[in-house]
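Notes from the 1:1 (GR / supervisor)

We went over the backlog. Supervisor wanted to see one worked example end to end before approving the batch request, so GR pasted a single chain during the call. The sequence is below; no edits were made to it. Supervisor asked that the structure be written out right there so they could see what the output format looks like.
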Amino acid sequence: MATVQQYSELTGRDTFDNDAFSSNGEFYPVFKIGKDVVGRFIGSIDDYLGNDRADYFVLDLEASGLKAGDELFVSFFGSSGTDLSIRFGAYTYEYLKTFGLNYNTHLLSNEKTRGSLIIPEGVDVISFQVWSISDFSGTYQVDMLHHPKLRTLLNLKGIGDRPELFRASDATEPVEVLAGDGNDFAWTGKAADVIFGGLGRDIAVGLDGNDFIYGYGKSDISGLGAKDGADQLLGGRGNDKMFGGAGGDYMHGEWNNDTLKGEDGNDLMQGGYGGDVMDGGNGNDLMYGGTETKLRGDWFGEALTLTWDGTTGKTMTPQKWSIPGEVQADDKSSDRMSGGNGDDGMWGQGGNDTMKGGAGKDKIDGGSGNDAIDGGSGSDVIHAGSGDDAIVDSGGSDKSYGEAGNDTYAVREIMDSYERYFSGGTGTDTVDFSKLQGLKPEILVNDKYVDIRGYTVDEVFRMELEGVEIIRAGSGDDQIRMNADDNTINGNGGNDKINGGGGDDKLYGGSGKDALVGGSGKDMFVFNTKLGATNVDTIGDFSVKKDKIVLDDDVFKAGKVGDLSSGAFSTGTKAQDASDRIIYDKASGKLWYDADGSGSGKAVLFGVLDKGLNLTAGDFDIIS
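Structure output shown during the call:
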């Protein structure tokens, strides 16, 4: 190996014949070296204003004659803070090795350069400045970046919002990238890499290895991707998109409206602030919508052991536990979560969330807000939390808890032999069978159970209910028999048979020719649908002493809200004067509504009661 030039300590006003030049009072020695050559400079430089240490060196390799497969060594020993710049031409190299202490290395190239860079211990920053000071074509590819002891720090900070590119897809050593403020693209290798996106709309791809990717920027991050490995992805500020790939990943959207896709593996996903969309993909995933911290352990089937101190060994094993008041923040944003396959866990926390468990045995907690929850086809445990929540039963042996608020539990699928459980909690809660169209189910509500028998199948499907106030049937011809509680039953469409059982019930026949039985108790029979020949209900056990007929003023124009006035009621086969609106025929038990009394308009039949009842206006109420 030959030496082109070697400089020892220089004094006086010596000059150089190696294209040394001066710019704005700074001295830049430029070394042009060829194959198998080391350029070495030691000494001080006199800029005619005193002796100063040179602090910026440029090695220009463009005319060196290197070709593919060549190996280049750069030996550089400078004082603290000294910079080294290496200018490349349009060639490829096998290895570029630099040796030195306490300096910054700048790699300058306007064209594609490919190879492996090995840097020494003590280097502060490696900066690919060409991507921040001039336009570029193609992608700068560095196959391997290696530091003897520490992670390599790649500073792509650049100038302004200049886009920057970094690619090390074949790297086997850890890579750490600080992308800066532009719209950056970083593609690291197969090791455990670290990528900081900085400000701007960044795209970061981790490939294999357990990677850490942090978007950071206030502007949108158009994509954060990690392939194989247990990766950590943090979105920072901006509307982020994250893809976990294979492996058990941790993903945190942090600020704004983020999209998190766990893909394969058992992932932990937290949306943070903003309205986030989370899709766990395959695997057993955990999803947290907001930033509210609440702990619940009773429904996981596992007891929690808390050790109070390390000396006594005493433990506490509660069945139900929580830490009220330990709330970091109450994020009111609305999140969307999709569990996919696997046994997933989802926590909606604050906001009106949409949560779908998919297949698997999922655990879902809506938190506060009016949430829409669908457990999917597995045997799920659902806690709706506070708020007026909508729970959908799509199959499986689900256990659902409405908790606080006026909740609705909709049964869509009963073509299986699984037993369901629903506890309404506080508030006015509804079980809705309206989606069971075509099955014509017979719904039998006993003390705690609902037995559902479909006409097209032989099996009986059972649901256990607690704290349910309203049953809503489907559009078919339903049969509903309730328990001794105070129930509200809505037959909706079809010719339904509804029995309120014991208790003070409220029965809505809905449209169709319905047969209504209040049972024991003080019952109300509500008429609130459009009248006609196909919408006439029969009340089988109306009690003048206890029951009421309730008329909705959207249908019946019979006076002010409240008790029906005595002048608006008459008995017989027709209205007696212009003020009559409700007419009861004691001989037939028929109940009519006449919008203009004794006028020319025809009365409309809307109900049939027992014959011979001593009805009065006091048996009718008008509601709005």
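Supervisor's comment: The first strand starts at residue 2 and ends at 7.
Batch request approved.
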